[in-house]
Design brief:
The complex is a heterodimer. Chain A is 0% helix and 51% strand. Chain A has no helices and 11 strands. By secondary structure, chain B is mainly beta. Chain B is 0% helix and 52% strand. Classes of the chains: A mainly beta, B mainly beta.
Chain lengths: 113, 109
């Protein structure tokens, strides 16, 4: 069964450092998302991406965040200067079409120290 | 009003019990509805889509009430392995997936 793959599974970084989280979507999927979940809290939307551009983003997704799909396969989330409060689980999700179910990767646990 | 709202629980039920969760949504133009299951520190996994006519998958039944803007999930004959957080996901028209806060279920022996 096709699956969404995320790397790394766990990343520890120092405050102020840049991190890049990677996602390989399911091959025929067109819509891509990043969500985050702080431990014990709800899943929060960060950004959606379609046709090589951001279609929507939340208030959380400020200038420190960026996304791209540089090679047509990997979908990346970059955090330029990490803060302690960026520590969370980051999930990539992909959809084939707008109204279909989304499939999630196993997540990257980001710990900022 | 939150876009998608769920009772956080926890719902503590004995094995074999029937339990039901509701989820309300605010956007009347919402078109697609899903229940996801999330185990601790794992990714959300699709449990079932929710169709207008209602649908059943084994011990799980999902229903949609458009007039009152809620969806429900019924679990019959609860198993210990059903213990998880159940996430309601709604797609408003032309918009991205919107999650409820989740309802935590704990099934006890």
């Amino acid at each position: 069964e096709p699956e969404v793959t995320q790397t790394p599974s766990h990343q520890v970084t120092q405050m102020g450092q840049e991190v890049i989280l990677r996602c390989v979507p399911i091959s025929n999927h067109l819509y891509f998302y990043w969500y985050r979940q702080i431990l014990g809290q709800k899943v929060e939307f960060l950004v959606s991406f379609y046709n090589n551009e951001i279609s929507e983003k939340s208030e959380i997704f400020d200038d420190q965040f960026s996304v791209e799909r540089p090679d047509g396969s990997n979908f990346t989330l970059k955090i330029r200067s990490t803060k302690l409060e960026d520590s969370a689980m980051y999930f990539c999700a992909t959809q084939r079409n707008m109204n279909t179910e989304a499939f999630f990767g196993q997540g990257t646990r980001l710990t900022v120290v | 009003r939150k876009e998608v709202e769920q009772d956080p629980g926890p719902f503590n039920v004995p094995e074999g019990a029937t339990v039901a969760f509701n989820c309300t949504y605010s956007n009347s133009a919402s078109q697609s509805f899903f229940w996801y299951r999330q185990d601790c520190r794992k990714e959300p996994k699709l449990l079932m889509s929710v169709y207008s006519s209602g649908n059943e998958d084994g011990r799980f039944t999902a229903q949609l009430n458009r007039a009152s803007q809620y969806i429900s999930l019924l679990i019959r004959d609860s198993k210990l392995s059903d213990s998880a957080t159940y996430l309601c996901v709604v797609i408003p028209a032309g918009n991205m997936l919107t999650f409820g806060g989740g309802t935590r279920l704990m099934v006890k022996p």
